[in-house]
């Protein structure tokens, strides 16, 4: 079977608790009946706040939707007030840990060294890192490739073997009106894919795009990425289902 087309959503801190629960139920109902999700051709993951994780795991039980955390501690246990370990996340059924998002790097001072230690913590505990990389400013194609690939290498330095989901998120395209231009995304994600392919122990990894992604983009990228990582444009469940339908069409093309 071909690798699934990935459709991930981070809810960041947009929703309160009640709204998040309603969104989980609405999404669970739609994906439960979706043949491409049920067959595994499209792999959906949802990354809510920490407080929303347990209800999310419960809401998506019986579906193939995986739940991820928006961050993870570098350590597995101990005196780390405010942190949540990969050990505990795995214990409660969380499957992925988002690491190194631009907002955490910018607002909370996360360095590549911290990101690498978080990636290591996720991998040694069986969580798939959703590792966010991308250039901070609008750069030319070659400079963007160099920035994203160097960041990927630094962020996986010393991390145990295991597949990762590299999310190419050019910082200038996050929270914007439009995603990065398709040709730019194709060039940088191709370079990230080549870099991952050259790393020992990273078989099964994927490269997705995030940054104002929404309906229409996956079709425009036409198989150049392994999927999308959505933010605001997945708040509307119909829009999310539209993206899942596009992912299903791509998955069907890939096997045809
Ligand atoms: O985690 C998701 C990305 O940062 C994209 O967010 P956005 O689509 O709202 O720009």
TrEMBL record:
GO terms for biological process: gluconeogenesis; glyceraldehyde-3-phosphate biosynthetic process; glycerol catabolic process; glycolytic process. GO terms for cellular component: cytosol. GO terms for molecular function: triose-phosphate isomerase activity. InterPro entries: Aldolase_TIM, TIM_sf, Triosephosphate_isomerase. PROSITE patterns: TIM_2. It catalyses: D-glyceraldehyde 3-phosphate = dihydroxyacetone phosphate. Pathway: Carbohydrate biosynthesis; gluconeogenesis; Carbohydrate degradation; glycolysis; D-glyceraldehyde 3-phosphate from glycerone phosphate: step 1/1. It is an enzyme of class 5 (isomerase). It is found in: Cytoplasm. Keywords: Cytoplasm, Gluconeogenesis, Glycolysis, Isomerase. It comes from the Bacteria. Homodimer. Belongs to the triosephosphate isomerase family. PANTHER family: TRIOSEPHOSPHATE ISOMERASE (PTHR21139:SF2). This is Triosephosphate isomerase.
């Amino acid at each position: 079977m071909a690798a699934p087309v990935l459709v991930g959503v981070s809810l960041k801190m947009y929703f309160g608790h009640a709204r998040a629960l309603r969104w989980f139920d609405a999404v669970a109902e739609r994906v439960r009946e979706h043949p491409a999700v049920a067959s595994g051709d499209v792999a959906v993951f949802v990354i809510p706040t920490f407080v929303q994780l347990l209800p999310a795991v419960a809401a998506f039980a019986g579906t193939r939707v995986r739940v991820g955390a928006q961050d993870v501690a570098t350590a597995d246990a101990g005196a780390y007030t405010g942190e949540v370990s990969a050990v505990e996340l795995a214990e409660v059924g969380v499957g992925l840990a988002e690491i190194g998002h631009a907002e955490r790097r910018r607002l909370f001072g996360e360095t590549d060294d911290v990101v690498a230690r978080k990636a290591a913590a996720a991998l040694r505990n069986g969580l798939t890192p959703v590792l966010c990389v991308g250039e901070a400013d609008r750069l030319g194609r070659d400079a963007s490739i160099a920035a994203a690939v160097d960041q990927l290498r630094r962020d996986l330095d010393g991390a145990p073997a295991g597949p990762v989901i590299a999310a190419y998120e050019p910082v200038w395209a996050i929270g914007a009106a439009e995603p990065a231009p398709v040709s730019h995304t194709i060039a940088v994600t191709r370079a990230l894919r080549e870099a991952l392919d050259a790393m020992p122990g990273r078989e099964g990894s994927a490269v997705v795009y995030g940054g104002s992604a929404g309906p229409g983009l996956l079709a425009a990228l036409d198989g150049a990425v392994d999927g999308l990582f959505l933010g605001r444009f997945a708040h509307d469940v119909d829009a999310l289902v539209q993206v899942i339908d596009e992912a299903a069409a791509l998955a069907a093309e890939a096997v045809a």
